[in-house]
Amino acid sequence: MSSNTPQTNLSFERYRLDGMMLLCAFYGIFLLLTVQAFTALMQRPRCGGKIADNRRALIFYVLITFVLGTISTAMNAKYTEIIWIDDRNAPGGPLALIEKYMSSRLNVVALACGQIQEWFMQALLLHRCFVIWNWTRWVMVPMITLYIIMIVLSILVMTEASVGASFYSNMIELAYLCIEVGLTVIYTILVTNRLFVMRRRMKQVLAQYDSSTYDTIALMIIESAALYSVFAIVFIISFALGARGIATMCFMSIGKIQGIAQLFIIIRVARGRAVTHQWTTRVTQVTIPTAIAFAGTKSHTSEGIDHERMARPECPGSPDVVHLYSTSEKATEQCIV
Q1: pTM of this prediction?
Q2: Which residues, 6+ apart, have CB-to-CB distance to 323 below 8 Å?
Q3: Sheet of 330-335, strand order
Q4: By the 8 A CB rule, do 88 and 63 touch?
Q5: In this structure, are residues 76 and 20 in contact, taking their beta carbons and an 8 Å threshold?
Q6: Beta pairing partners, 332
Q7: How large is the greatest C-alpha to C-alpha distance in the chain, in angstroms?
């Protein structure tokens, strides 16, 4: 390597190459989880029960995101070859080709496929959030608004990319990433808060209720969002500060990392371990030795002990309210979410 090449240029080139290697590693994980998710969706849950809800929609999601992610990765791999092999003697060398990222049609295709893939991923997040919140309007409206804004910004980014605009001076890209990360963070907060509230209120109704299901799902959601959020925040900060090397390395892997996080959730859904709409609007059947009877159910007495089960709430205008009655009179009213 010529000693006349500035060290800063070499550093930027290394970041670009390291980003491609990191992308390939995450793509391998993405491929493996895609196969597992597809296989799980084609089978019945381990616990017996019916095939996962929305199976066809989830299969479509898995396939379309895999195709889009594969095209994006292939385009990035090809451009990497162009940088250091095909056009390494081009004016300005590899550094100029890296800086002119948007001038190549390969990268425009890679960017478009990556961002359309993000649309599907964020749509899945919104759906899961709305299911857990039982399609509450005050949750849906702002989340859908942010989602539409994200798509509009994404289209603007792709439009500028098609005319060869500089990637590293495109502030619309920064705004787009901020909205996207914001959606993920808000989703995580809303869902985990909802699950913890459900857990607390269930324990108020039933002191001996096993709340491990809520804890497991909340932990799964937090873990799935953590890696993506860290990478995205590092990219946003480095992009805003002009640290092009770190921004490039993180940007190349963001889509695959989010895809991996979503596939973890899909595999849980396919195996019947995730939250469903019915799960949020009714309480699962339990057997407890108590003298409390729930509205709309019958108590069954065996050997002097009342065994009760909980059914779907029957409170008009409030689907999340369950009335509790003692065997002799109405005792209390408890909301569960």
Answers
A1: 0.73
A2: 294, 295, 313, 314, 315, 330, 333
A3: 292-294, 321-326, 330-335
A4: no
A5: yes
A6: 324
A7: 92
Collect all residues with Cβ–Cβ distance below 8 Å to 222 and sequence separation of at least 6. 188, 192
Vertex 322 angle, CA 319 and 328, to 5°: 150
φ, ψ for residue 307 (rounded to 5)? -110, 120
CB atoms within 10 A of CB 277: 14
For the chain, percent helix, then strand, then coil, each to nearest 5?
70, 5, 25
Render 218-266 in DSSP notation, one character per residue. HHHHHHHHHHHHHHHHHHHHHHHHT-HHHHHHHHHHHHHHHHHHHHHHH
CB 286 within 8 A of CB 209: yes
Distant-in-sequence, close-in-space partners of 214: CB < 8 Å, separation ≥ 6: 195, 196, 198, 199, 202
Tens digits of pLDDT across the chain (337 residues) = 444 544 446 888 888 889 999 999 999 999 999 999 999 888 765 544 444 457 888 899 999 999 999 999 999 999 988 888 887 777 877 888 887 777 788 888 998 999 999 999 999 889 888 888 888 889 899 999 999 999 999 999 888 877 767 777 778 888 888 898 888 888 888 888 888 887 777 777 776 766 666 777 777 777 777 778 888 888 888 888 888 888 888 888 888 998 998 898 888 777 765 444 444 454 434 443 333 333 344 444 444 434 433 333 334 344 343 333 333 333 323 332 3
Conformation bin of residue 49: beta by default, left when phi > 0, alpha when psi is -120 to 50: left
Query: How far is residue 72's CA from residue 1's CA, in Å, rounded to a whole number?
Result: 31
Contact partners, residue 175, CB within 8 Å, separation at least 6: 153
Measured CA to CA, the distance from residue 104 to residue 79 in angstroms comes to 8
Distance of alpha carbon 228 from alpha carbon 99, whole angstroms: 25
Contacts of 230-234 with C-beta under 8 Å, sequence gap 24+, read 231/257, 232/177, 232/180, 232/181, 232/184, 233/181
